Structure formats: structure tokens, C-alpha cells
Amino acid sequence: MPKPTLQHRVRKIAPGTTLTDYCQQAIPLLGSRTAVKKAVHSKRLLLNGRPARLNDPLQTGDQLTLTGTGLPKARKFEQEIPVVWEDSHLIVVNKPAGIAVNGDRIRTLENALAGSVEPSGEPDALPRPVAVHRIDLPTQGLVLLAKTKQALMAMSQAFEHNKVHKQYIAVVHGRPAPQGTTRAPLQGKPAETKWEYRRTVPSRDFGHLSLLELSPVTGRTHQLRLHMQQLGHLIVGDKQYAGPQKTVLNKGLMLCACYLSFQHPTTQKPIAIKILPPPKFEKLLDREEAWAKKQ
User: Fold this and answer.
1) Residues 193, 244 within the same domain
2) Among 27, 34, 33, which residue's Cα sits nearest to residue 67?
3) How far, in Å, CA of 197 to CA of 85, rounded?
4) Least confident stretch, 36-45, 258-267, 271-280
């Protein structure tokens, strides 16, 4: 059987972006610097038909070709991962906060699933589920992984062309407008986030806290966290971007990926998957509201 081939056309990127940096974000099978290096050194990654080099600068319209999966052997990591939805092509799980989706480390979602999810029975089955996208290490919630090569390629393209709809629930500082959109660029790239108000409570220590529904139209690194911080509505528990601002500690990041919808790559049927945010989100708001009323 010939090795599978993934074709990827580079879309609009910032000047000076290197092959290594780009591939980590755009090609799920190359989700770490190590994976990109291995693909380049084994000549499995081509740039415009020739073997790619790690520091090759990329331009809009460049063609990347990847042969084979090149999947590294999974490392043993045992952690129970709730499966929310699954078929022979895809699997959606509820990633716990505190573990990475993938990368050159042991505590990853992919490593945990490799030991608990049986490979697909399809002819182009991957040896283990491969994440199609990522959410931050401290973020909990829905992650879509592919179980076949065809599903991986199709869903990677769907994410790249913003054909997958995602929604998050977050607790933030302050009282945002009932709804709105921010298009502030991030990392020199266009970025867009929509939000919608759900609940606001007074807080003895923080003025007000609010429950929001966040919808990222683009998928920049830490997009929701940065956009909310820039708007003056830091996500509760986000120590990385809090700076001098005080926030709730020891409760984790109050951000959960709660909704995914997409067209199935094989059946073409619409798929919509939803979970509830952790109970601690509402418990925090109830507690803050009760304390404020006692003053």
C-alpha cells in the first residue's frame, strides 16, 4: 500500500514565518518542533515539490506535501478521559484541565487515549487518535481527534477554513456589554472573537464577575484569553495574563470548550456536540453573590 499523502496550501501568513513554526500550528501530524524536524530529516516533508528545510521561509500559496503519518510511538500515560462522541472515523473527548493535547511530553491527551481507545477498523486507520486541533493546557473541554487518515486530512482543512464552529463558556472579571465582537490582531495576524452575556453577579473582592459564551471565529494561540484581557475582562484564574490584576487563585482557569459543530467528513451529516461547563463556574458566581449581599 502506498504511503498516504497530505497536501496543504499555505494561506495568508506573517512575513518571515518559518516552516518549523508554521507546520506546528497548521498540520496536526506535525504538532511539535520534534515532529517537524523528523519529517524534514527523513525527507517526508516537501516544499513546492523539493525536500523542505527547517528554516525555509514560507509565502502565501506555497505547497506543502507530507508523506506517511510519521506518528511517534505513544508514551504510557494513564488517565481516564471522558468520551463524549465517537464513530469509526472521529472521536470527541472532554479533555481535563492540566494536560496538553499533544507535543513532546508524557502527560498528553493523545498518550492517554492511545492506551484506552481501540484503533478504527477502517482501511486507512491511524494507529492511535490524532488531535485535529488544540486547546490550552489549563483549559478543559471538547477536543476532536481523528481515527483515520482521511478524517484527519478533511477535518484539518475544515478547521483551516473556519468550517468548524466552537463555543466556550468562561467566567470573567467585570461587566461586559451584553454581546459584542473584537477583531484585535494577535501575533500579527487577524483574529476575531464574539461574546454573549449570560450572567453577572456582584463580587466583594472583584467588583463584578460575569459568565460569558465565547465564540472564536479564528484560532490564534491563547486567542480567547488575550482578547478578554485586552478588553479589560480577564478570564478568572488566568495567572499567565493577569499581570498586576488580582484574580481567583487555586480554582484553575475558568474556561471550558463546551460546543463543537461540523460536517462529518465521510457521511456529510451535520454533527453538533455539547457539554455543560464544570459546576465550579456557577458555584463561584453563587458564592461571590452571597458574600456581596452580606456586606
Assistant:
1) yes
2) 27
3) 28
4) 36-45
- pTM for the full model? 0.81
Beta bridge partners of 50: 47
In percent, the amount of the chain with pLDDT more than 70 equals: 97
- 196: its cell numbers: 454573549
Its domain, for residue 138, covers 75-146
Q: What is the rounded distance in angstroms from the CA atom of residue 179 to the CA atom of residue 175?
A: 11
- Give the active site residue among 56, 62, 136, 238: 136
Say which amino acid occupies 62. Answer: D
Q: Give me the number of domains the chain comprises.
A: 3
176 and 134 within one domain:
no
Mean pLDDT score of the chain: 91
Rg (CA), the chain: 20
Alpha carbon 187 to chain centroid, angstroms = 16
Q: Check whether residue 59 and residue 90 sit in a common domain.
A: no
Place of cell 499567565: 240
What strand order describes the sheet that includes 63-67? 5-9, 63-67, 45-47, 50-51
First to last CA, the chain: 72
For the ranges 7-11, 26-30, 123-127, 182-186, the maximum mean pLDDT occurs at 182-186
Q: Are both 197 and 116 inside the same structural domain?
A: no
Q: Mean per-residue pLDDT for 122-136?
A: 91
CA atoms within 13 A on the CB side of 219: 19
Residue 232 domain-assigned?
yes
Q: Nine-digit cell at 282?
A: 456557577
Contacts of 294 (CB under 8 A, 6+ apart): none
pLDDT tier at 157, thresholds 50, 70, 90: confident
Give the whole-angstrom CA distance, residue 158 versus residue 66. 18
Residue 104 falls in the annotated catalytic set: no
